[in-house]
Design a protein that fits this description.
The chain has 329 residues and is an alpha/beta fold. It contains 10 helices and 15 strands.
Length: 329
């Protein structure tokens, strides 16, 4: 099979397209013929091996697997022992390991049936980013009808899903983005859109019940200023720093939270089948529409990751495999 491979941590340009043997599914695993792989900034971290915390999963000194990618959509090629409810030929989407390849392994617990109305590309755009938005807003933020919600970074991979998910819960949504994305964020259902080059949302007289900050380009005190008493600030970035500054930026909100009237939160989004099924239903009904900035062939994975790392992607970037069908089945 063809796959994108890196033998050591380093620049994105070191990624190579190679022919390698396909993996074998272990107990509880499924082998998926990947039709499309959704990318996110975490894939850049695994290639670079930075921040260092990612190496606790990917390998301390060198990559244990060496193929980037977590999100996928495709067809089940084979199933390992102890897998029930999934059969060869089923169309699925979810998360796996090393999805920037023609075949990838995945736990059967992190796969769900692909909605028939979605293309492979659209389905591959969902898992990590849409799950992050769902977990942040529903599980951490307790989003509910009538709540005032602000999404900072509303045009990115998580942000585009967050606007739509918050609206699906009946919230009043304000999106913050750059001038070129105002129309996009408004089209996703935002009640108000703030162009950050013209207005600083932290200086507004408006107050919010919940802020999902996907950018973290403002000090905590500024964001706290526009929260209502008891409001929640959910931080979903912190990656603009390195080394000790990264750790301080990651942990400072959690240390401060018990001493301020606002709730300052970080979260971990773990994929599971039930939530993937919920996302699939939202997408199948048209409530949740993946925004895809671009699709690229497998050989251009490095350039796709560089585009994501630049911070200018509108929504998601998706890699397609050689000979993959684009239409929904």
């Amino acid at each position: 099979m063809q796959a994108i491979v890196h033998d050591s941590y380093g620049p994105l340009e070191a990624l190579q397209l190679r022919d390698i043997a396909p993996p074998e599914p272990a107990a509880g695993e499924v082998l998926v013929r990947v039709r499309a792989a959704g990318l996110h900034v975490g894939d850049c971290f695994t290639v670079r091996g930075s921040p260092l915390v990612v190496r606790t999963e990917t390998g301390l000194l060198r990559p244990k697997h060496g193929i980037p990618g977590y999100d996928l959509a495709g067809e089940v090629a084979a199933v390992g022992p102890a897998v029930e409810g999934i059969s060869p030929g089923d169309q699925v989407f979810g998360t796996g390991r090393g999805t920037c390849a023609e075949y990838a392994r995945a736990s059967h617990q992190t796969l769900a049936p692909k909605p028939a109305t979605l293309s492979f590309e659209a389905a591959a755009a969902l898992p990590t980013s849409a799950l992050a938005a769902l977990h942040a807003l529903r599980d951490v933020g307790g989003v509910a009808p009538g709540r005032q919600v602000l999404i900072n970074g509303a045009s990115g991979g998580v942000g585009t899903f967050a606007v739509q998910i918050a609206k699906s819960f009946g919230a009043e949504v304000t999106g913050v983005c750059g001038p070129g994305n105002v129309a996009l964020v408004r089209s996703l259902g935002a009640d108000e859109v703030i162009d950050y080059t013209r207005e600083d949302f932290t200086r507004s007289a408006r107050r919010y019940d919940l802020i999902l900050d996907n950018v973290e380009n403002r000090p905590l005190r500024d964001c706290r200023r526009v929260l209502r008493p008891g409001g929640t600030l959910i931080l979903n970035s912190g990656t603009g720093a390195r080394g000790l500054r990264f750790l301080l930026r990651l942990l400072a909100p959690l240390a401060l939270s018990p001493f301020v009237p606002e709730r300052l939160r970080r979260f971990i989004s773990t994929p599971n089948q039930a939530n993937l099924v919920a996302l699939g239903k939202l997408a199948a009904s048209g409530t949740l529409k993946p925004v895809i900035d671009r699709t690229v062939p497998l050989r251009d994975t490095a350039a796709a990751l560089a585009h994501i790392e630049s911070g200018h992607a509108k929504g998601k970037v998706v890699v397609t495999m050689p000979g993959a069908r684009k239409a929904a089945a």
